[in-house]
From TrEMBL:
Identification of the protein by name: GTPase Der
Molecular function via GO: GTP binding; ribosome binding
Entry annotated with the keyword Nucleotidyltransferase: no
Family membership noted in the UniProt record: Belongs to the TRAFAC class TrmE-Era-EngA-EngB-Septin-like GTPase superfamily. EngA (Der) GTPase family.
Domain EngA-type G: 7-171, 180-355
BP-aspect Gene Ontology terms: ribosome biogenesis
Residues given in the record as GTP 1 binding sites: 13-20, 60-64, 123-126
Gene3D superfamilies in UniProt: 3.30.300.20, P-loop containing nucleotide triphosphate hydrolases (3.40.50.300)
PROSITE patterns tied to this protein: G_ENGA
Keyword Signal: no
Function recorded in the entry: GTPase that plays an essential role in the late steps of ribosome biogenesis.
Name of the encoding gene: der
């Protein structure tokens, strides 16, 4: 069963009617940027929603402004149209305080032609006294309006019941554990969206040369060779000094939450610019969170090369990320398609390493041999004893060592053991966590 077949619900409506607020309430966490500037939600944003044990994908679209030629606005309109095409159920959100506008009428007209279930949601009805406003919306010809208050969570349960009741037969509403979740991170204009589009083979994300166009994390499900993937395209992290627009601040948090949700993190670095402080930050977060990581050096076609170039770049990355020697490095060009096929191959590989389990007997054989070759450290005549080890977790792999005294453990010896474990079992692309349990013999 694939997520491709999951019911899709699109939230549409003109800017500033509260679509993102509703989206965030359903998602149970802040994903969409909520701000009072019209047009802040630019791209389609996806999230998984669960209601009464049924799972569906919710898409928050950029606000539709029917009569505007501004480049970003017209792309937002296209994104919303795309979402409407993909959706099984459409929520049209209107502002109950403002009443019907010409734009609402035009959107309703478009939606009536889709022949899909459309649920009319009258938002911002915060008290019974405002309830009379709801009746005006019958005029839109979309059936009975649902009165809610997104901000106060009023009426959301009834609305969710109605959404679920409208799903077509034969869709998969169950949770799928086999999906590999991949976050694409990196600085604005390092080419993240181009990499995403290249992997998908379609223009799924707004790509325009204005830095910072992909403001939000965009979730895209797809399937290849029988494997399901969720690609999370993050709004590029900005350098600290530029966080004067509060929207950008959210984007930084968003990149962190994208890393948090992922199994595998692609750290996309612009070959011309080299490693920046921001790349170091994202990589550090991904490493600390124990994610599988891959360095993707993009725009490799633009670099003058001789037989030392790859080594020079590899050395730079290994020097700047000494704690991430486990992460593979790929040199690609999204533009010329060079080595782009390696990305998913490597994602599959590191995802399986990240989730790998090794048997206790095999692990102890390696630890025993390592201890014989190189004695553990001693302190004031007492030596560290390792009684045995076991792998106690995956994603990331965690090794628990049962020992005589925690005070005798030393980082350098742990690194030695880690290297021996990697030589024998791989664990490429993922960090390994160590935990010590004191056991009196």
């Amino acid at each position: 069963m694939s997520d491709m077949n999951r019911p899709i619900v699109a939230v549409v409506g003109r800017p500033n009617v509260g679509k993102s607020t509703i989206f965030n309430k359903f998602a149970g966490r802040r994903i969409s940027i909520v701000e009072d500037t019209p047009g802040v939600t630019r791209d389609r944003i996806f999230t998984e929603v669960e209601w009464l044990n049924k799972y569906f994908t919710l898409i928050d679209t950029g606000g539709i402004e029917p009569k505007s030629d501004d480049i970003i606005v017209s792309q937002m309109r296209n994104q919303a149209m795309l979402a409407m095409d993909m959706a099984h159920v459409i929520l049209m959100v209107v502002d109950g305080k403002q009443g019907i506008t010409a734009a609402d009428r035009e959107i309703a007209e478009t939606l009536r032609r889709t022949n899909k279930p459309v649920i009319l949601v009258v938002n911002k009805i915060d008290s019974m006294s405002q309830y009379d406003n709801v009746y005006d919306f019958y005029e839109l010809g979309l059936g009975e309006p649902f009165a809610i208050s997104g901000a106060n969570s009023m009426g959301l349960g009834d609305l969710l019941d109605e959404i679920v009741a409208n799903f077509p037969e034969g869709l998969n509403t169950e949770i799928d554990e086999d999906t590999i979740k991949v976050a694409i991170t990196g600085k604005p204009n390092a080419g993240k969206s181009s990499i995403l589009n290249n992997i998908l083979g379609e223009d799924r994300v707004i790509v325009s040369p204005i830095a910072g166009t992909t403001r939000d994390a965009v979730d895209t499900y797809f399937e290849k060779n029988g494997q399901n993937y969720l690609l999370i395209d993050t709004a590029g992290l900005r350098r600290k000094s530029k966080v004067y627009e509060s929207v950008e601040k959210y984007s930084v948090i968003r990149a962190m939450s994208a890393v948090d949700r992922a199994d595998v993190v692609l750290i996309v670095i612009d070959a011309q610019e080299g490693v920046t402080e921001q790349d170091t930050k994202v990589a550090g977060i991904a490493h600390d969170e124990g994610k599988a990581c891959i360095f993707v050096i993009n725009k490799w076609d633009l670099i003058e090369k001789d037989n030392k170039t790859v080594k020079k770049y590899t050395d730079e990355i290994r020097t700047k990320f000494p704690f991430m020697a486990y992460a593979p490095i790929l040199f690609v060009s999204a533009l010329t398609n060079k080595r782009m096929n390696k990305i998913l191959e490597t994602v599959d590989f590191v995802a399986s390493e990240h989730a790998k389990r090794i048997s206790t007997s095999a692990l102890n054989e390696v630890i025993g041999e390592a201890v014989m070759l190189n004695q553990p450290p001693s302190d004031k005549g007492r030596r560290l004893k390792i009684y045995y080890g076991a792998q106690t977790d995956v994603k990331p792999p965690k090794i628990t060592l049962f020992i005589n005294d925690k005070e005798l453990t030393h980082f350098s010896y742990q690194r030695y053991l880690e290297n021996r474990i990697r030589e024998n079992f791989g664990f490429e692309g993922t960090s390994i966590r160590f935990e010590y349990r004191q056991k009196k013999r």
